[in-house]
Specification:
Blueprint lengths: L3 H7 L6 H8 L3 H11 L5 E2 L5 E2 L2 H15 L4 H13 L17 H13 L3 H14 L2 H21 L5 H21 L8 E5 L8 H12 L3 E4 L6 H10 L4 E4 L4 H8 L2 H5 L4
Parallel strand pairs: 3-4, 3-5
Antiparallel strand pairs: 1-2
Length: 269
């Protein structure tokens, strides 16, 4: 429980918009849009008109980020925030606000079926349910990745067409890219560059690791599939990378990489 002193400190306006952007990864322009549309956050103004945010404002912004990652709109997140503040007892109430979580296996089956059938609305709801009951890392490892594996298996068994497989993969890849954007990226500290080498088009592994690294507070650049090694080395040198990570799913891709590996070692020994 907050003491009076703690509560006062948490509400003290201390941080500029730039500092809040650096801490949360949410652009200052977005903060102003939220303030204008929803009245949240509600920073105080200096005599010269500059916005100053408190620790509570930052907590609210992180709350919004979490809800958005769960597939909830900002307007709905603002309503939930207001509801939780006015009715804190609901936090522990067993009601429809806290439905029993489905097992990961059940969610995988539901997500496979919905993405194959192109039912993005149902798929969004399944992902929102998962985000409400597990961390992002588990959503990726226990739901999204197994779904992609099962979709691939169904294609190999001839149960679905290439078109269905592409539709499902495209949807889930988009969700992973969205999670990567929400994770933000620190402006300071060591830098990691992730990519798939030439000939590698399966980017889910590298994309997932990029999400995990950013959420762990590591500055991360993700370059995607089929990245030429010469260009990768040049980019890594430009951003002063401390490490380069590559993801390959076949021995052929790895064999093709061996002759150019020295280019990367010259950048990151």
């Amino acid at each position: 429980m907050l003491t009076q002193t703690d509560a006062t400190t948490a509400n003290t306006p201390l941080f500029t918009a730039g500092e809040v952007e650096e801490r949360t990864g949410v652009p200052a322009t977005t903060l102003r849009q939220w303030e204008r549309r929803y009245g949240l956050p509600n920073p105080q103004r200096t005599p010269s008109g500059y916005r100053l945010y408190s620790q509570n404002d930052i907590a609210l912004i992180e709350f919004f980020k979490t809800k958005i990652s769960q597939g909830i709109s900002v307007s709905r997140a603002a309503q939930l925030y207001s509801l939780e503040r006015s009715l804190p007892s609901l936090q522990n109430a067993p009601s429809e606000l806290h439905p029993r979580a489905a097992s990961p296996t059940t969610l995988v089956t539901q997500l496979v079926d919905s993405t194959i059938n192109g039912d993005s609305l149902k798929a969004d709801k399944i992902l929102a349910q998962a985000h409400a009951t597990m961390p992002v890392e588990n959503v990726v490892l226990d739901l999204i990745q197994p779904t992609l594996v099962e979709v691939g298996e169904r294609w190999h068994r001839g149960e679905i067409t290439v078109a269905h497989e592409h539709q499902s993969t495209h949807y889930l890849r988009g969700k992973l890219h969205h999670l990567l954007e929400l994770a933000g990226s620190p402006r300071h500290g060591p830098t990691v560059v992730l990519a798939c080498p030439p000939g590698e088009w399966h980017e889910i592994g590298a994309l997932s690791i990029a999400i995990f690294l950013r959420r762990a507070g590591i500055r991360t650049h993700y370059l995607g599939a089929d990245t030429p090694i010469v260009d990768l080395a040049r980019f890594a040198r430009e951003v002063k990378a401390s490490a380069i990570m590559l993801s390959a799913t076949s021995s052929e891709v790895v064999d093709g990489l061996r002759s150019q590996a020295h280019l990367l070692r010259e950048v990151v020994p």
